[in-house]
């Protein structure tokens, strides 16, 4: 499995986690890349359909914001998004704990 | 491929409402501008910066597919809801007919209460629908 495939399965969790701080798309990708130590490798254009979907599910909200002479679409978590993030984070931790237990068990 | 060519290719194949498509293209344009600026700052020439920016966004086909998927889902849900509604109405009709038939059998010996009012307006309704199309029935 390529790094890109590995990330795509967890894209929603990464996007929700990164949007605890309001960000526009480019800043969001930049943050995830830096926070992942450069491991995040994703077709950057495809995050926008994902953001739109999460917004449609009520997990995000977005608005155009004027900054440094440019208009940007800025996304942030809704209350529902915060709860979803918490749930998905717990699922992720349970999953990694289980996998680690198996691969380290010998 | 230049950022402009990339956006044109994308614009021609995107499904969904116009306002949503325009918003996606505006966001991708912003993203491309940022990527180009970063490449230029890193020392790339303008043409090279544009090409690298497009590469980073991923193929237009990949973005279109991701975009189309989110529009396919609500439609699938809508179809499922419509099917459920049709099935519910069909089931309710079958139950109503069955109940009516059962009631008819139970009241076999008595004249049915609803038979007269239901039966009598029918010829009138048929006549009313037919008359506008029949010039002969007009008063002379």
Q: Can you give the helix content of chain B as a percent range?
A: over 70%
Taking the alpha carbons of the first and last residues of chain A, their distance comes to 23 Å
Number of helices of chain A: 5
The CATH superfamily title of chain A: Winged helix-like DNA-binding domain superfamily/Winged helix DNA-binding domain
Structural class based on helices, strands and sheet pairing of chain A? alpha+beta
The radius of gyration over CA of chain A amounts to 15 Å
What would the principal axes of the Cα set say about the shape of chain B? rod-shaped
Structural class of chain B: mainly alpha
How can the largest sheet of chain B be summarized? none
Strand content of chain B: under 5%
Number of helices of chain B: 6
CATH hierarchy class name of chain A: Mainly Alpha
Q: If classified by CATH, what would the architecture of chain A be? A: Orthogonal Bundle
Give the averaged pLDDT of chain A, no decimals.
90
Largest interface comes to: A-B, 17 and 22 residues
The low-pLDDT segments of chain A are: none
Give me the secondary-structure topology:
The complex is a heterodimer of chains A (106) and B (140).
Chain A: H1 3-8, H2 11-18, E1 23-24, H3 25-35, H4 47-56, E2 60-67, E3 70-77, H5 79-105
Antiparallel strand pairs in A: 1-3, 2-3
Chain B: H1 3-13, H2 18-41, H3 46-57, H4 60-106, H5 115-119, H6 121-130
């Amino acid at each position: 499995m390529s790094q890109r495939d590995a990330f795509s399965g967890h894209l929603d969790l990464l996007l929700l986690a990164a949007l605890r701080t309001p960000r526009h798309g480019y800043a969001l990708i930049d943050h995830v890349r830096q926070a992942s130590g450069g491991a995040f490798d994703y077709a950057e254009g495809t995050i926008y359909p994902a953001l739109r979907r999460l917004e449609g599910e009520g997990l995000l909200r977005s608005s155009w914001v004027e900054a440094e002479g440019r208009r940007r679409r800025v996304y942030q978590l809704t209350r529902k998004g915060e709860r979803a993030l918490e749930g998905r984070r717990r699922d992720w931790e349970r999953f990694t704990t289980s996998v680690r237990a198996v691969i380290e068990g010998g | 491929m230049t950022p402009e060519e990339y956006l044109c290719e994308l614009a021609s194949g995107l499904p969904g409402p116009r306002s949503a498509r325009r918003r996606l293209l505006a966001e991708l344009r912003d993203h491309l501008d940022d990527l180009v600026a970063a490449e230029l700052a890193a020392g790339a020439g303008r043409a090279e910066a544009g090409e690298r920016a497009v590469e980073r966004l991923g193929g237009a086909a990949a973005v279109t597919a991701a975009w189309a998927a989110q529009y396919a889902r609500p439609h699938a849900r809508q179809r499922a809801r419509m099917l459920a509604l049709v099935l519910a109405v069909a089931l309710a009709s079958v139950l109503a007919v069955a109940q009516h038939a059962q009631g008819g059998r139970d009241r076999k010996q008595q004249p049915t209460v609803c038979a007269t009012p239901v039966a009598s307006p029918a010829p009138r309704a048929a006549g009313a629908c037919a008359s506008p199309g029949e010039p002969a029935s007009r008063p002379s």
